[in-house]
Automatic annotation (TrEMBL):
<keyword id="KW-0812">Transmembrane</keyword>
<feature type="transmembrane region" description="Helical">
    <location>
        <begin position="353"/>
        <end position="370"/>
    </location>
</feature>
<feature type="transmembrane region" description="Helical">
    <location>
        <begin position="18"/>
        <end position="37"/>
    </location>
</feature>
<protein>
    <submittedName>
        <fullName>DUF874 domain-containing protein</fullName>
    </submittedName>
</protein>
<keyword id="KW-1133">Transmembrane helix</keyword>
<feature type="coiled-coil region">
    <location>
        <begin position="251"/>
        <end position="320"/>
    </location>
</feature>
<keyword id="KW-0472">Membrane</keyword>
<keyword id="KW-0175">Coiled coil</keyword>
<dbReference type="InterPro" id="IPR050445">
    <property type="entry name" value="Bact_polysacc_biosynth/exp"/>
</dbReference>
Length: 416
């Protein structure tokens, strides 16, 4: 410990360096008082928001807003801490109005440092962490209790509004996307059907639904032609029989009737034959036409499948949009409103001043000790005996021949 080996040595050092100790102590106390007086009290409060689960099970009506709640809250926090939003809050409540020297950017930085948004993860299901948040805490620390409560409540309100608006916008965009895709596919399908109809008319091709009908009509025409052939045979047989058995006049009359009936049957046969030929011609197509029609059919089936899929997704998106607009999906609610703080969270000024005084005293004693180390000297017989092992015979005190001075400053100088 250098020249200090006992309490007496310490006390002698204090007496010798009393002026230095007093000056440093007084200056330190003044600095501590100024620092404590310049410190401003800060009040802190927090608003707690709860992330509630959807009112309808996801298996029955699924929301179209995907992603973990932690990621969505992070995006909302970034929008809350944007410069425009922070400036709106500062202007709304008149924050930092007494700090006219601060620029707008400095005020924005102060408010960002004064507001904290923290989340509490929800209980895990199994071993996977799905990033779900159950509670969101918004903490504000401001110079006054009213401002702390106002800022915490304002950020909580804006958080809820941003969450609702973000979810609704995402659901609306999803619905608009699938509705647009559905309309586009419907237009493509209608255009393809018109193209197929025009191609069939151009190549004189019947529609697929009428092929079976025309084939059935051809079969009926063939049966009609067979029936005409049977009737013709019966008429000729009857005429031949009458020619052989009846009298000439009767046979001639029956022959004339048979010829008339045969003429009628010939006319019917020609009509049915022409109709059958027309139907058979309408059913005949070339290989190129068949290939083109097959490609059209495949494209038509593909568009119909895509349209059905888009319609199903559009229905799901519409259900999700209704859930969001009806606030029946995941949402934020105020669990604990921000209370008005009763006491500041910063330390008392008196405590800071006392701590500064104690630190000043320690600094003064340290300075005095350093001065003793810089100017080592054997000042007492005990120190000489301890350092050299020699016992002094006589100790002659230092005699101050200067006239005595009055005053506290002179006393300190004389003692030093």
């Amino acid at each position: 410990m250098g020249p200090i080996y006992s309490l007496g040595d310490f006390w002698d050092m204090v007496q010798r360096r009393l002026f230095t100790i007093a000056c440093i102590f007084v200056l330190g106390c003044l600095a501590s008082l100024w620092f404590a007086a310049s410190q401003q009290h800060e009040y802190e409060t927090a608003e707690v928001l709860q992330i509630t689960q959807p009112q309808i099970a996801g298996e029955l009506a699924k929301s179209t807003v995907e992603g973990s709640s932690a990621r969505r809250m992070q995006l909302i926090e970034q929008r809350l801490m944007a410069r425009g939003t922070v400036v709106e809050v500062i202007e709304k409540f008149g924050l930092y109005a007494d700090m006219e020297a601060l620029t707008q950017l400095q005020k924005v930085a102060l408010l960002r440092e004064s507001v904290r948004i923290t989340g509490v993860a929800a209980a895990r299901e199994g071993f996977a962490d799905d990033g779900t948040i159950s509670v969101l805490t918004i903490t504000a620390r401001m110079p006054t209790a009213e401002q702390a409560q106002q800022v915490a409540s304002e950020f909580g309100r804006r958080t809820i509004e941003l969450s609702v608006a973000t979810r609704i916008d995402q659901a609306r965009e999803t619905l608009s996307f699938f509705a647009g895709k559905e309309a586009a596919l419907a237009d493509q399908l209608a255009a393809l059907e018109d193209e197929i109809a025009a191609y069939r008319n151009e190549n004189d091709v019947t529609l697929p639904g009428t092929i079976e009908f025309r084939r059935a009509e051809i079969a009926a025409l063939n049966e009609g032609l067979l029936e005409i052939a049977r009737e013709r045979i019966e008429i000729r047989r009857a005429a031949d029989q009458a020619q052989a058995t009846e009298r000439p006049a009767t046979a001639r009359r029956m022959q004339e009737e048979a010829e008339q009936q045969l003429a009628t049957l010939d006319a019917q046969e020609q009509l049915l034959t022409r109709r059958r030929a027309g139907l058979e011609a309408s059913l005949q197509t070339t290989p190129e036409v068949e290939r083109r029609l097959g490609a059209y059919d495949r494209r038509l089936e593909q568009l119909q499948a895509e349209l059905a899929q888009m319609t199903a997704r559009r229905n799901e998106a519409e259900v999700g949009f209704r859930l969001e607009t009806g606030r029946q999906a995941e949402r934020l609610t105020v669990l604990e409103p921000a209370p008005l703080p009763d006491y500041p969270v910063t330390g008392a000024r008196k405590t800071k001043a006392l701590m500064g005084a104690a630190a000043s005293l320690l600094a003064a004693l340290l300075a005095a000790f350093l001065q003793e180390l810089r100017q080592p000297a054997l000042r007492t017989a005990a120190q000489m005996e301890r350092e050299t092992g020699l016992v002094p015979v006589v100790s002659i005190p230092v005699m101050d021949t200067r006239p005595p001075r009055r005053g506290l400053l002179d006393l300190f100088r004389r003692r030093s």
